[in-house]
Specification:
By secondary structure, this protein is α/β, with parallel strands linked by helices. It is built from five helices and ten strands; from the N terminus they run E-E-H-E-E-E-E-E-H-E-H-H-E-E-H. The two termini are 43 Å apart.
């Protein structure tokens, strides 16, 4: 019997071996969240190869090691973070590759590479004019979220009348921190921002000037004014961000 190899890969770290030929592709939607939100979208492409399953398992054991390896019902599995999985299975285990047309007779394995696109939740940062504290907060938050692969993205908005542009001193400060915000156009918060955000943070805002009815707003009113102490303001925001990140991670 021809052996088939299933490699379910949810990150670019795993690749089909040299010489493998494309067989077919498809897509599926993951399970809905407990909040009723759509699940992650997964696209996959299957390839066939003349190399045997056992040979490929040995190869990946050499390159990926055994630390993140497990075996379940005849499948070898490697993980790279929460979203990256590589499986090596016999044809008797079944899998999405069964949707493909038959592989060539000389094929000894099937390689399937999948990529997952998760919907990210929004964290809304507001400051009075949408170009200073909220931009600083969103910049630091998005860097940490990217570094730690957190499913969140931050946006900045004004609770009152927005600046025409990010103030030059703020843009210069953040440039020194590795953030490029000089071209950012501050905007006023909208009702859809408040409805769609998983977390809403007010940084020294006058919320009486904002219709935030129904939104749970966390207040950071201890942050120094940027016009008085820009480094101190950024330091206070970073401290709050660290706490917020820990809270969000505990939900996962």
């Amino acid at each position: 019997m021809v052996q088939l190899l299933l490699m379910t890969i949810l990150a670019s770290a795993f690749e089909a071996p040299a010489g493998a030929q494309k067989l077919c592709g498809g897509h599926v939607t993951g399970a809905m969240s407990v909040k009723g939100e759509p699940g992650p979208h997964i696209t996959w492409t299957a390839y066939h190869s003349r190399e045997s399953r056992d040979a490929l398992v040995r190869r990946y054991m050499r390159t990926l090691g055994s630390k993140e390896h497990s075996r379940d019902r005849g499948c070898d599995r490697w993980r790279d973070g929460p979203d990256a999985v590589l499986e090596v299975c016999a044809v008797s285990e079944g899998g999405p590759w069964s949707e493909c047309s038959s592989a060539p007779r000389d094929a000894k394995s099937i390689i399937m590479i999948s990529s997952m696109a998760r919907k990210k939740e929004t964290v809304l940062f507001m400051c009075p004019y949408g170009g200073a504290k909220s931009v600083i907060a969103a910049s630091y938050f998005n860097r940490i979220a990217a570094e730690q692969s957190l499913p969140f993205v931050a946006v900045a908005a004004a609770a009152e009348t927005p600046y025409d542009a990010v103030p030059p001193n703020v843009a210069a400060f953040l440039e020194g921190e590795g953030f490029h915000v000089a071209g950012l156009k501050p905007r006023r918060v909208e009702a859809s921002d408040l409805r769609g955000a998983s977390r809403v943070v007010s940084i020294d805002c006058d919320l009486t000037k904002l219709d935030a009815q129904g939104a749970a707003v966390e207040r950071w009113d201890d942050v120094p004014k940027v016009s008085v102490d820009l480094p101190g303001s950024a330091a206070a925001i970073r401290k709050h961000i660290a706490t917020l990140v820990d809270q969000l991670k505990s939900r996962r």
